[in-house]
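Sample 1 of the test manifest.
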Amino acid sequence: KQEVTQIPAALSVPEGENLVLNCSFTDSAIYNLQWFRQDPGKGLTSLLLIQSSQREQTSGRLNASLDKSSGRSTLYIAASQPGDSATYLCAVTGGSYIPTFGRGTSLIVHP
Amino acid sequence: DAGVTQSPTHLIKTRGQHVTLRCSPISGHKSVSWYQQVLGQGPQFIFQYYEKEERGRGNFPDRFSARQFPNYSSELNVNALLLGDSALYLCASSLDQGAYNEQFFGPGTRLTVL
């Protein structure tokens, strides 16, 4: 059974810092990994989707990498802003075609 | 283009009642999935529907059921509500059921069971 772990569980940083959020998974036989952002009480917003054949994806200040062999992905946020404050979730899709989510990293960026 | 829509936004029910949640996927998307998210946890998969057929089911009791309509919208039904069913229910749509597809989520329905 796939298990997804996200570290750290919570993070508080001053504005302007570069951040790294981590996601690890136990079964490396995956089709893709997707990073989401969730604001309190709201739905999930897709940030980046990395297919199993890819090593990384970039969108604006966000960069996500994938290392299938080690079962790890990182989400890099450059020059963080207060508007980046949210919970960040990663989801891994494997042979069952059903995404497995981590518990998320709660990020607070203070001015 | 409209994203995934869900209704209602909030719902309060009492134990033992029944609830129906509704979801409309992004235009052109044929697959709809339902998730339950309890506070402080990641979403847990409940069902996936593609072309009006159930294609996947998570570890939820038979009190949970769903269906997909010819226009690809979907309903999630929960019978005999328990306090533990209180959660945010999320719907996600994708182009088809393939594992390589990106999932897009709706805003969710907050269900409170008293």
